[in-house]
Write a structure and sequence with these properties.
heterodimer; B: 111 residues; mainly beta; 6-stranded mixed β-sheet; 5-stranded antiparallel β-sheet; globular
């Protein structure tokens, strides 16, 4: 296991189409996060899971966005009816959240760059 | 509102000299702070972190200082190397460990 893996690396889609991205975290990591980064900005939090439970969603995550982590391993992020404003780098990260509230640093994947034309 | 601010967009230093990257924050609820390094077309890579109860953490060439009263932290890289040229992000983390990032600063280390 060499780290967090994201697929695809690049996606170009037409406005109005649906897209789905996949993230495979580091295998023993129970927390998984999705972030979005646009040009000139730092990554912005979208949502996170502990095992299969989605614990928090940012208000940035409109109802066109949905994320799942059905078996507590890989996760998918789907965007329905894409808009040009959805063009961004979508980053996935994972970490270990332990008993007592300790948490390791988050390790990021290489991201999926989405371009909506 | 921007909870983590990196006010300088870029920094250029000579190889071998010290690089000092600054970060300010407004959220007093952050439990710890992290620095990430990012190359183009790659995801951020973790560099170093510091708990909010500490004022310094050192790892090799990298040292992070935290001044809680001023809500300011800084990353020192010494000596700087050309391979350190990248975008550096400061981030704060709360109880749920979600990260709030600054906009980043582009460091260029001149040979």
């Amino acid at each position: 296991d060499t780290g967090v893996s994201q697929n695809p690396r690049h996606k170009i889609t037409k406005r109005g189409q649906n897209v789905t991205f996949r993230c495979d975290p580091i295998s023993e990591h129970n927390r998984l996060y999705w972030y979005r980064q646009t040009l000139g900005q730092g990554p912005e939090f979208l949502t996170y899971f502990q095992n299969e439970a989605q614990l928090e969603k940012s208000r940035l995550l409109s109802d066109r966005f949905s994320a799942e982590r059905p078996k507590g391993s890989f996760s998918t992020l789907e965007i329905q009816r894409t808009e040009q404003g959805d063009s961004a780098m979508y980053l996935c990260a994972s970490s270990i959240y332990g008993q007592g509230g300790t948490n390791t640093e988050a390790f990021f994947g290489q991201g999926t760059r989405l371009t909506v034309v | 509102d921007q909870q983590v601010k990196q006010n300088s967009p870029s920094l250029s230093v000579q190889e071998g000299r010290i690089s000092i990257l600054n970060c300010d924050y407004t959220n007093s609820m952050f439990d710890y702070f992290l620095w990430y390094k990012k190359y183009p077309a790659e995801g951020p890579t973790f560099l170093i972190s510091i708990s909010s109860i500490k004022d310094k953490n050192e790892d090799g060439r990298f040292t992070v200082f935290l001044n809680k009263s001023a809500k300011h932290l800084s990353l020192h890289i010494v000596p700087s190397q050309p391979g350190d040229s990248a975008v550096y992000f400061c981030a704060g983390a709360g109880a749920n460990s979600k990260l709030t990032f600054g906009k980043g600063i582009t460091l260029s280390v001149r040979p």
